[in-house]
């Protein structure tokens, strides 16, 4: 019989058990926070890919879509969580600060840019002899649980905001955006749609039947609708051998802008130059879609960078030729997601002589 001060058996210490359990947990929840989450999902991808017999083509089909969407999302400060099949899931860390107006503006800008990227994505698919695709975008704002697994250093998100964002995705129209009430309230409080975007987009609440009473059916959902205010016919401008090309030049560095504009003008080009990319986009939206023969965009610009501006211009006139100028080594990324960029010759690398700059412009216009 054991002594009074001896334990009859070696039972484990409860605190040790908890510690060991924590060490062996596959998923650890590290914090709760509010943030904006987003889902982008291909429409009827199973049906479409079932007709593609080559596995390499199937991988290319998904890869073009997912990589383009991920590149756009990251461009607006989003962090990609994962893809589930053909659905890309990401969130915007800076929206954890509900007073950060610019971070919520990035959310709307990102979603609109994704919508307007469809023609570009399909053009890339057609180059690979793959079928066109459509996709739905959903976004919402609210509480999430941030977790991390033992096998990954990437964050994962759980909670009702994620669940709701997944549910409302199916409510979006193909190539459209649906947002939940949580995000809509923030957008409304900040008046986030700029005057330009209000000319082209507005939100409408989804109408629900009277017999919808509980849960998701009572949660307000809003659709981004396109406002057709085009004042121009889509007929192309007649061109002849005497036509002088008109160029849209956008660069936030005014000394470089002046140098490029002067150099092109001296070669006989009509040049309209803008240091503010939003001002350039506003102007582009008001002229005849065929007014410009070429747009030259700096990649790194504040407010609206060259990649973002590219998609906006293409949404207005998909036939506009675009040439990038950059001091950044961004060629691999651009080649992977933009049909217009196939080689290093499609990007003018700063610094550049006026002679080489004009030569690149002539090549782009040829």
Strand content: 15-25%
CATH architecture of the largest domain: 2-Layer Sandwich
- The total of helices stands at 13
CATH class of the largest domain: Alpha Beta
Q: Might you state the CATH topology name of the largest domain?
A: Alpha-Beta Plaits
Per CATH, the superfamily of the largest domain is Nucleotide cyclase, GGDEF domain
Oligomer: single chain
Instruction: Note poorly predicted spans.
Output: 4-9, 210-215, 230-241
Q: What integer value in Å does the Rg equal?
A: 25 Å
Give the tally of structural domains. 2
Number of strands: 13
Mean pLDDT: 83
Taken in chain order, the helices and strands follow as HEHHEEHHEEHEHHEEEHEHEHEHEH
Q: Helicity, in percent?
A: 25-40%
Shape: globular
> Strand pairing plus helix content: what structural class?
alpha/beta
Largest sheet, described in full?
Answer: 8 strands, mixed
Measured distance between first and last alpha carbons: 100 Å
Report what the structure shows.
The protein has 2 domains: 28-226, 2-Layer Sandwich (Alpha-Beta Plaits), CATH 3.30.70.1230; 246-365, Response regulator (Rossmann fold, 3-Layer(aba) Sandwich). It has 13 helices and 13 strands. The chain has helices at 14-24, 45-49, 55-75, 101-116, 118-127, 160-169, 181-190, 195-200, 254-266, 277-286, 306-316, 331-337, 354-365, and strands spanning 27-42, 79-84, 87-92, 135-149, 155-158, 176-180, 201-205, 221-226, 246-250, 270-274, 294-298, 321-326, 347-349. The strands form 2 sheets. Strands 1, 2, 3, 4, 5, 6, 7 and 8 form an 8-stranded mixed β-sheet that branches. A 5-stranded parallel β-sheet has the order 10-9-11-12-13, sandwiched between helices. Strand 2 and strand 3 (87-92) form a beta hairpin. Helix 4 (101-116) packs across helix 11 and helix 10 runs parallel beside helix 11. The radius of gyration is 25 Å and the shape is globular. The chain starts with 13 loop residues before the first helix and ends with a helix.
